Amino acid sequence: MFAYPVPLWRFPGEGRGLVGKVDEAGRNAAFLAFRDWAPAFAGAAPWRWISVAILILLAGCGGAPRGVTFHPDENPANLSEWGLFTRTAGRLAPHDGMVTYELNTPLFSDYAQKWRTIWMPKGVHATYDPEKWFDFPVGTIITKTFYYSTPVDAAAPQTSGEVLKVTPATYQTGVSGLNLRHVRLIETRLLVKRTSGWVALPYVWNADGSDATLERTGADVPLTLIDGAHRDAFSYTVPNQNQCSGCHAQDFRTRAINPIGLKARHLDRTFAGEGGEINQLRRLVALGYLTGVPGQVPPGNAKWQDEKAGTIGQARAYLDINCSHCHNRVGAARTSGLWLDTKTADPRMLGTCKPPVAAGRGAGDRPFDVVPGQPDRSILTYRLASTDPGEMMPELGRDLAHGEGLAVITRYIATMKGACDAVDGSKRVTAR
């Protein structure tokens, strides 16, 4: 929801007037300084009373909803119709009841920063699952807002074609919303749980950042990423609804879409918010948003940039969030035989000395998905480095290569021990 001030009306010769506005919590309010202005209207012309009546109606019946509004059937054209956010004093803030969360390792999306929230109606909760996405109740709304920091000298950040590569200095937790002073909002994606299941809705922000519009067919946003003296022109792609389903349908048997990040292994970390810097799973329990969490939770994924986690932990966490929604035993890429979720332990299924299955030119003339000790001969690094739509992995959600993520995977393969037999159509390929 967005806060639009209703004009302050003061009549000639009066020191006070009637103020109508949408307050910071997003609730319509009319503030009537009755004792101050009513005496001044004694014997006043009828037009003045009519004006006051009109203003009261405007203040009490604004276009934005009073709070978070779940739409069980309709897909509103504007994001504001969901009543999720307020925009006041240069800040995009979450409505009451929305909980900001963060992942141990986030999915890479052309260096975009992401602000994630979850909201549920009162009296309902999600059910914990140790491996899969949690079972969320009807009425749940998950939001993910993609944005970039802009140069400090950008006159109009929301239309700036130049954006900055994320650094610790530009990171915002989002717990109290986003400071928009040097921010370009790109899109806000919603996952909405209805009686028929989840639906994904992509909203693209307008030129003044006042609202976002539903774009079912997606959109392309031309940008230039600035990293010190280096500049990369790219096209940020907002996915269409079919593409959203392509990633979020993580089980080919049902083809139902489900959240990717809202799993125990991605959420098990401390993060700021209500209750302080505490474990996110425990926060959700305390808020009544999650039930069934055991006293001992299996270890969460590593933070991919945390060197203390070790190269294997970093790499497995990175591959899990970026690849395993397709590359798992029941995912869209199950027939590839390459399963990249953290539960998989078989080296062969993780790609070691495994020849590609119908990779075509995507193999880059490299013999195996992973060649121990030789990242420059491994298909995995080739496809992560590529920006060719016919070769790159992941297939969607990026126009740039993730240099830092690629470096982690390169180091991971370089530290592996062993070797693979030479490729021969009549010979069984084995590791040695």
Summarize the structure.
This protein is α+β, with helices and mostly antiparallel strands and 432 residues long. The chain is built from 8 helices and 18 strands.
Helix content: 10-25%
Look at the helices and sheets and give the structural class: alpha+beta
Mean pLDDT: 84
Number of strands: 18
Biggest pleated sheet: 6 strands, antiparallel
**N-to-C span:** 60 Å
Quote the beta fraction.
15-25%
* Radius of gyration based on Cα positions: 26 Å
Oligomer: single chain
Shape field? globular
Q: Report strand order across the widest sheet.
A: 5-6-8-11-12-13
Q: Which blocks of ≥5 consecutive residues have pLDDT under 50?
A: 1-42, 46-62, 424-429
- Given the structure, what is the number of helices? 8
Order of helices and strands: EEHHEEEEEEEEEEEEEHHEEHEHHH
What does the model show?
This protein has 432 residues and is of the alpha+beta class. The chain has eight helices and 18 strands. The strands form six sheets. A six-stranded antiparallel sheet has the order 5-6-8-11-12-13, covered by helices on one side. Strands 3-4-10 form a three-stranded antiparallel sheet, with no helix packed on it. Strands 9-14-15 form a three-stranded mixed sheet, with no helix packed on it. Strand 16 and strand 17 (278-279) form a beta hairpin. Helix 6 (310-323) packs across helix 8. It is globular. Residues 1-42, 46-62 and 424-429 have low confidence and may be disordered.
